[in-house]
Design goal:
Blueprint: E1 2-4, E2 7-12, E3 17-22, E4 32-37, H1 43-55, E5 60-65, H2 71-83, E6 88-91
Parallel strand pairs: 4-5
Antiparallel strand pairs: 1-5, 1-6, 2-3
Helix pairs in contact: 1-2
């Protein structure tokens, strides 16, 4: 699962106009962090690690699970992306 900050798009339904706002400096090199998660990792720890990466101004937060994300972890990731401004899920992939 991959999360990114720095993009927001708006669509005005009355005028059918589309606006894309870049919320970061496009010249600055994107910062990336990889968070490895364990199946037994408590949800509150995962939440803290994601928020810390977000506050640390990482543009790309990539998350990896040993086998697969648990239902609790998946729900926490979705909850965090809805709660933090500019954070979105951009890719979900399974190796299995």
């Amino acid at each position: 699962m991959q999360l990114e900050t720095g993009r927001q798009s708006l669509v005005d339904s009355a005028t059918k106009r589309f606006a894309l706002y870049l919320l970061y400096d496009p010249i600055r090199k994107a910062r990336k962090i990889v968070l490895d998660t364990q199946a037994q990792e408590p949800g509150r720890f995962l939440k803290r690690r994601i928020v810390a990466a977000y506050v640390g101004s990482f543009d790309n937060i990539q998350m990896k699970a040993e086998k697969r994300f648990t239902d609790e972890q998946h729900n926490i990731i979705l909850e965090i992306t809805e709660a933090l401004f500019g954070l979105e899920v951009t890719e979900v992939a399974s190796i299995a």
